[in-house]
Structures are given as C-alpha cells and as structure tokens.
Amino acid sequence: MAMFDTHLAAGTVMSGALATLAVTHENVPLSLALGLVLAGTLGSVLPDIDAPQSRPTRVMLSIFAMALSLLICIRLVSSIPFWALPLLYGICFLGLRVVLESVLQRFAVHRGIIHSIPAALVATTATAVASHTLLGSSALQSWWLALFVLAGFLIHLVMDEVYAVNISGAKLKRSFGSALKLYGEPFPTLLCLVVLVALWLLSPPIPQSIVSLPQALWGAVFH
C-alpha cells in the first residue's frame, strides 16, 4: 500500500501535468487551472478517508467541514446579519465535522467500498453537483473539476494495486485486488450505487466538449 505522502506527491504532479495539457490543448481558462490541480490532488488522497483514525483522514475531514461551512456561509451571506456569520460558520463546522467522522467510523472499512470504481464515480459526480450548485460554476467548469477528482482518485487506486505486487518475489500481496474493484460488501455497494444515481439526477448536463474528450485524447495519442 502506498503511503499518504506518496499519494499526495503523485496526485500533485499528475494534476499539474494534466492541468497544463487542459489549458494548452483543450482551451481551459488559465483561471481554472489552479482549481483543477487542487481537485486532482484532493482526489488522489480521497480514498484514504476510509481510515478515520489516521491523522491524514482527520485533517481531510476538517478541510471538508471548513470548505462546506464556508460555502454555506457564502450562499446565505445576503440572508442573515453580518454578526451572525461567524456563529453560523462555527455551528456548521462543528456539526459537519462530528457528522462526517461519525459516518466514517460507522460505515468505513479500510480497503472497503471507498476503494472502488463506484466510489470514484460518486466522488466525481458529487464534485460536479457541489461545484454547480454551491459555487455557481458553469456545467463545463464543474465537470472539468469532477474529471480531475476522478483522475486523482483512479491514480490512487492504481498505485495501491501496484504496491500490492511484490516484484522481487514475483508474487502478489494479500491486498492485491482490494483497491481497483467494481464492488465490495453487498450493503455498502448498494448504498454507493443509490448515492451515485441520486447525485447523477442532481448533476448538471455534461457539455459536448467533455463527452468528446476521450475521442480527442485517443486521436491525439494515436494519430
């Protein structure tokens, strides 16, 4: 299993390289590039939230709670008195932090459903929904951010599988196959699919330029 620092470094490098390609070849505005790098880097460490007792996970949960609280305050800034904003932020942060940690401790199992392709799709679609709904980003910007979260998430899963191969001994470790998988335990898998469908129904339409991106990449590589 790759360490947190390794995932973070790989996610940062990959996201920077992909953001450069997006800006130079896909007409992505330079102003979005930093957001893409952050999204890819976040995606590259996101699967490890299924270890709720680890220090990196606690840090990530706090960042999530901070970000969500900030977004809530931004959305409500015109509806409440200025003096109430710090109080609202504090309540939101503490509430979200406790709820997120409680949910993870109740349902998360390391190398469980969160280390899977369905979980990667949930993270991707959730990013598009959050960006479009909470930040007011366009559908195109939202799906670009979502794609970078997906890329980071997948590179994490691939690295975990690579680290599960003992090359010197020409054998597979016990953890092989536990990251890049299509399903886990029945109930978590079903719950993950239900959440994915719900998020998909809430997500903005995928722009044609995003739909045609795989074909464009294929043409750029093989022609």
From TrEMBL:
TM regions (residue ranges): 29-47, 59-77, 83-100, 112-135, 141-159, 180-202
Keyword terms: Hydrolase, Membrane, Transmembrane, Transmembrane helix
Claim: Iron is one of the keywords in the record: no
Transmembrane keyword on record: yes
GO terms, molecular function: hydrolase activity
Pfam families: YdjM
Name the UniProt record assigns to this protein: Membrane-bound metal-dependent hydrolase
Source organism of the structure: Desulfurispirillum indicum (strain ATCC BAA-1389 / DSM 22839 / S5)
